[in-house]
Write a structure and sequence with these properties.
401 residues, alpha/beta, FAD/NAD(P)-binding domain, 2 domains, five-stranded parallel beta sheet, 25 strands
């Protein structure tokens, strides 16, 4: 029997750990149930931190962890999925193709930044969506130091007033002063089509976010969208042109394109609809998890978000349940009633909320300390020691906060 997992992000990593955990509990050998993880590199990109400086350091190796738990790593990119013949076509870095059959499949392919067809966007915008994107932005910011001082050089426009946009924007003033000199006067502007910043955070948290933006010197242009970009900056739907050498696109996410190959219903974000065991509806032997899946978190109408907090726990349930079906044991119903947010606000600290209603529990330096612990400890892979790694993936205890 073979369980194939596509993706080495948070959901894919925890799917592998959890499936291996259940296999171990059931006393089944790796020869009887092979668990194979397919990804271009055996590396976890710590994506929630890519708004930070030195993004090239924000990865964690997975090879030793996978080896410790007897998960086979298959290097390459999944190009096609055939759910009828139950096979995944894989393309290696050198362009060779091979087919990998499966008895159960877990789609953990994550998400991608949504880039609409706006004139100039593809040529003139940066992002912190992936590792290479974040590295390109970091290099660009350092190259600004070689340019003459000007308002255009010192202005950064961040498009998107959600979590990613706010974290990128609030960290930018201090980041630019480090690069350009302490006397630099960076100007950072968030552009968002909504009438309020952080629309998902609610009325309780929003005034604190607005105060933090003022504190670190971040301006906003709300109720406006981007009409076009060029070498000189960005033109808004209002007609305003902002001269800027750096435009960062952080407006919206979509499930990775591979999900479109699964013949099943998807939501407006391209996520596959799944049942409470994370099986893809109407497609036999296929599970989806993390940003590739829209799953009910509870019985009162809350659904998973595109976040590592949901991806890790969903991954653990998907891995357990796919393996459980193959081993003939009971599955576990995914649930995630607990939900927190911890929003980095740069030199203004951070904001920690609990619950879907975003009740504020910590602000400022106290919340910043928690954010650092989340970013540097909690979201990293377990150590490459078999017992500890397997123990970390109990679905009922992953990301309990």
């Amino acid at each position: 029997m073979r369980l194939v997992i596509i993706g080495a992000g948070f959901a894919g990593m925890y799917a592998a750990l959890s499936a291996a955990r259940l296999r171990d509990i059931q006393g089944v050998s790796p020869e009887e149930l092979e668990i194979a993880l397919v990804a271009p590199e055996p590396t976890l990109v710590v994506r929630p931190r890519l708004y930070e400086p030195k993004p090239e350091t924000l990865t964690a190796p997975l090879q030793d962890v996978l080896k410790a738990i007897d998960v086979v790593y298959v290097q390459g990119s999944a190009e096609t999925v055939d759910t009828k013949s139950r096979a995944v076509q894989i393309v290696t870095a050198k362009g060779a193709k091979k087919s990998l059959s499966y008895d159960r499949l877990i789609v953990a392919t994550g998400s991608r930044l949504f880039r609409p067809n706006i004139p100039g966007l593809a040529d003139h915008a940066f992002s912190v969506d992936g590792l290479n994107d974040a590295i390109a932005l970091d290099r660009h910011l350092h190259q600004l130091a070689s340019l003459p001082i000007s308002e255009m050089r010192d202005t950064v426009v961040v498009v998107g007033g959600g979590f990613t946009g706010i974290e990128a924007a609030t960290g930018m003033p201090s980041r630019l002063r480090t690069i350009l000199g302490k006397d630099a006067k960076p100007r950072v502007i968030i552009v968002d089509r909504n009438e309020a910043i952080a629309p998902d955070m609610g009325a309780g948290a929003r005034p604190l976010i607005e105060a933090a933006l003022r504190n670190v010197g971040v301006e906003t242009r709300l109720g406006a969208s981007v009409a076009s970009l060029d070498n000189s900056g960005v033109t808004l739907s209002s007609g305003e042109h902002i001269e800027s050498a750096t435009v960062i696109w952080a407006a919206g996410m979509r499930a990775a394109p591979l999900t479109a190959q699964i013949p099943a219903e998807r939501d407006s974000f391209g996520r596959l609809l799944v049942d409470r065991d994370l099986r893809v509806l109407s497609v036999d032997r296929v599970f989806a998890t993390g940003d590739a899946a829209r799953a009910a978190c509870d019985n009162v109408g809350n659904y998973s978000l595109m976040s590592c907090q949901h991806a890790t726990r969903m991954g653990a349930f998907a891995g357990n349940n796919a393996a459980a079906e193959l081993l003939g044991v009971a599955t576990r119903r995914y649930h995630q009633e607990a939900y927190v947010t911890c929003l980095d606000l740069g030199e203004a600290g951070a904001l920690f909320t609990r619950g879907w209603e975003r009740k504020v529990e910590m602000v400022g330096d106290q919340a910043k300390k928690t954010k650092r612990e989340i970013n540097t400890v909690w979201i990293y892979p377990p150590r490459a020691e078999r017992a500890a790694a397997l123990a970390s993936a109990d679905p009922e205890h992953v990301t309990e906060v």
